[in-house]
Design goal:
Helix content: 40-55%
Shape: globular
Strand order of the largest sheet: 3-2-1-4-5-6-7
Strand content: 15-25%
Largest sheet: 7 strands, parallel
Structural class: alpha/beta
Number of helices: 13
Length: 379
């Protein structure tokens, strides 16, 4: 009888309280590589992701993660909580004989703290935000710690890496889709000639919905066949609820509320894209953008701001338009160009599909991460 080989254990440290592009990326990878590795997710106590992860067959542990913020109570409790979490994580890693601890974002220091107190595992750290979003001194602090304790620092785009350093520990590995769509989404005939725009993102200040709203208003005044749909959640956070309410009130004040929808989060992105002619992402800072990749892979022309990672997802003027950051006027022009010429939309649709299938193939994305894992466990 051939003895069953035990799969190396990987702990995924994810501090999201709800679905995000960062979570979807690491979750998709775990499902892709679960035949080779045993994955255990470590999530916040009250995360909305617990049920989804468990239903997919993964084990879950929870910790009371606390993020740095301007709130005085959070600041006071941050480091004691971090130390307690590190002690707990060290115990989990020891009990599970974890080979790798993969922290799914740079600012979560529980991995480096656990290594600092004697954790016996290889630490990987993902950088899933644009570093220029944060104070430079804070980024330097995070970087110094990770250069000491992380074996590899994974950047989701070249834009992210350029904000950090050329250190040999840094690797650029793009995120991947769970799978490429089997059919094109391009809408040949929209009912009543209406052109439908989609903005798919949580309602978070800085995600660009306010800029997109202004761009749409100006475009609608010139092309009344345009329709706009916002889709996203508020993650249960008060500041996000207030931001969504602001957007709704702004739409009412501009007297275009009947042609705009403000919808909640969706679990069926593919269905949303099937109803879409133009996809928008006007985020002020974006390290990658899984939603942009999903739109392009589905054949939906893209208008995105030059905010970091999106510029690496497509070719400007070939499969979409890249517009200056926080420039509603440029966004309006791009929307009108696409809305008024179906031939351009169709060409962009075909080009986008071809481009992302090549650049974001399995070999270039999850394959590279798997090779990195293999390099670690065979050392």
């Amino acid at each position: 009888m051939v003895a069953k080989v035990k799969k190396p254990t990987v702990l995924i440290i994810e501090n999201s309280i709800d679905t995000t592009g960062a979570f979807n990326s690491i979750f998709n990878y775990a499902r892709y590589a679960q035949a080779e590795y045993h994955f255990l997710f470590v999530l916040p106590h009250k995360s909305q992701l617990l049920k989804r992860v468990r239903q997919s067959g993964f084990e879950v542990e929870t910790l009371p993660f606390r993020e740095i913020s301007k709130n005085s109570v959070n600041l006071l409790l941050y480091f004691p909580t971090l130390l307690i979490n590190a002690i707990r994580l060290k115990k989990i890693a020891q009990e599970r004989q974890a080979s790798i601890v993969h922290v799914n974002d740079f600012y979560n220091l529980v991995g480096v703290m656990t290594k600092a107190i004697g954790g016996k595992f290889t630490l990987l750290t993902h950088v899933r935000f644009m570093p220029n979003r944060f104070p430079p001194l804070l980024v330097k602090f995070w970087m110094k710690l990770n250069l000491v304790y992380s074996t590899y620092i994974i950047c989701v785009s070249k834009a992210v890496k350029q904000c950090l350093s050329d250190h040999s520990k840094l690797r650029v590995i793009y995120d991947s889709l769970a799978s490429f769509p089997s059919e094109f989404v391009f809408r040949e005939h929209a009912e009543d000639g209406r052109i439908k725009l989609l903005y798919l993102a949580h309602y978070i200040p800085g995600k660009g919905q306010d800029i997109a709203l202004e761009a749409f208003v100006n475009a609608y005044q010139q092309n009344p066949k345009l329709r706009f749909r916002f889709v996203g959640g508020d993650m249960g956070l008060e500041k996000n609820k207030q931001y969504k309410e602001y957007l709704e009130q702004r739409a009412k004040a501009l007297e275009i509320y009947p042609v705009i929808e403000f919808n909640g989060a969706t679990s069926n992105v593919a269905e949303e894209l099937k109803q879409t002619d133009i996809f928008l992402n006007f985020s002020e800072s974006e390290s990658f953008s899984m939603t942009c990749l999903e739109a392009l892979a589905s054949g939906v022309p893209l208008v995105a701001t030059d905010s970091g990672g999106p510029a690496e997802l497509f070719e400007h003027g070939m499969s979409g338009y890249l517009v200056p950051n926080r420039d509603a006027e440029a966004g309006t022009k791009a929307i009108l160009l696409l809305a008024e010429d179906k031939r351009i939309r169709k060409r962009f649709s075909q080009n986008g599909i071809s481009y992302v299938r090549c650049k974001f193939s399995t070999e270039n994305t999850v394959g590279k991460l798997t090779n990195l894992y293999a390099k670690i466990v065979t050392c």
